[in-house]
Amino acid sequence: MQHYRAPIWMAGSGPIGGHIQTIWPALFSRAHSPEDIVAATPGHEHKLNYTRQRWDTPDGDFIDVDSLVPPGWSPGDSPVLVLFHGLEGSSQSHYSRAFALWAQQRGWAYVVPHFRGCSGELNRAPRFYHSGDHEEVDWILRRVSTQWGGPVSAVGISLGGNALLRWAQEAGSTAASVTSAVAAVCSPLDLTAAGHAIGSGFNRVSYNRMFLQTLKPKALAKLKTYPGLFDAQALAAAPDLYAYDAVVTAPLHGFASTEDYWQRCSSKPGLKAMKHVPTLVLNALNDPFIPAWSLPGRDDVGPAVTLWQPRQGGHVGFPAGRPPGHVAALPQSVASWLAQHAPKGHSRRR
Question: What's the whole-model pTM score?
């Protein structure tokens, strides 16, 4: 994936190519390549038969966790892949399905914890989730490791990847007892740079608006349970994620302002000290959300960190194949890298 190039019918390393490689895969591409045998109902490969569990959180809330395990599987039979989704994502996001199929084909157990409010039902507590939610990630990973066996392999997509990196940074040497390796895909390592990028130009009228279409109704629904939790008029008037974070995310999660939230939760400053757990950080240089100039160089990261920065790929796109294309190349590269660090001695299906 570090040498990824988009197929010629959607090629381009500049801004236009970045948008095409972001939007088309999310809307139209398949989760699997034509050569793959899909373990799903014929004609319904977009749906996967997850098993859902509801976990009560230590603060009286809940999260929903979707999983796929091979028939007859028990802890220790194979590695476990955990995926943390992106902003307003879920186990049915295009990238989640692609990683699910990779895991199925290799006999791995696969687990997708939903951040609070992202499973289709509003969570109970006043809080939601955010880009630096490392305490929540810690609780989730430790419970996954206990239930399904560990250490586990963990991948985070976009926001989920930044939160996963912040967890690894906070956990330090103890992270190795929970995870064998972690990967962050298209993550906003510098939240200030990414936040301003998504609020500008074409991004502002497309992606920014898309996220607000789900974030605002959830926050307004929260006010019915917790009147006065934040300013409803300010929320309704919020034109972008910067304003949304100022009204909702920052005050709900203990930050003084959007700037304080973005600065304290960015994972980029902590990359230099990472030395305990093998870590892959993948960012396309034409990602519309994440300016290439804000990405780390080799001197900005610690010895445990591997950087993949292909010129193309968009934001969690990396399409391949003939139209309509597929997104299987992403898990094939990233999960295969994680597999190199998975605990040895498991029986694996080939």
Answer: 0.95
- Active-site position among 64, 240, 245, 287: 287
The answer to whether residue 347 is catalytic is no
Give residue 126's pLDDT: 95
Residue 112 · residue 91 · CB < 8 Å:
yes
> Distance (Å, rounded) from C-alpha 33 to C-alpha 122?
34
Residue with tokens 């299906």: 349
Rounded to the nearest 10°, the torsion over CA 19, 21, 24, 29 is: -170
Q: Which long-range contacts (CB under 8 A, 24 or more apart) does 262-265 make?
A: 262/191, 262/192, 262/195, 263/191, 263/192, 264/132, 265/130, 265/131, 265/132, 265/162, 265/166, 265/191
Which of 29, 67, 145, 158 is catalytic? The answer is: 158
The per-residue pLDDT for 43 is 42
The letter for the amino acid at 29 is: S
Among candidate residues 253, 276, 315, 326, the one labeled active-site is 315
Between CA 139 and CA 167 the distance in angstroms is: 10
Q: pLDDT at residue 40 above 80?
A: no
Whole-number Å distance between alpha carbons of 22 and 315: 5
Do the strands 51-56 and 109-113 form a parallel or antiparallel pair, or are they unpaired? Answer: unpaired
The confidence score (pLDDT) of residue 2 equals: 85
Question: Which domains does the chain carry?
Answer: 8-189+268-339 (3.40.50.1820), 191-265 (no CATH)
Query: Are 338 and 280 within 8 A, CB to CB?
Result: yes
Going by the DSSP 8-state scheme, the letter that residue 247 receives in this structure is I
Classify residue 301 by burial, with Cβ atoms within 10 Å: 0-12, 13-18, 19+: buried
Q: Which residue has the tokens 């976009």?
A: 158
Look up 131 and say whether it is catalytic.
no
Handedness of CA 173, 179, 181, 186 (dihedral sign): negative
Nearest residue to 155 via CA among 37, 281, 318: 281
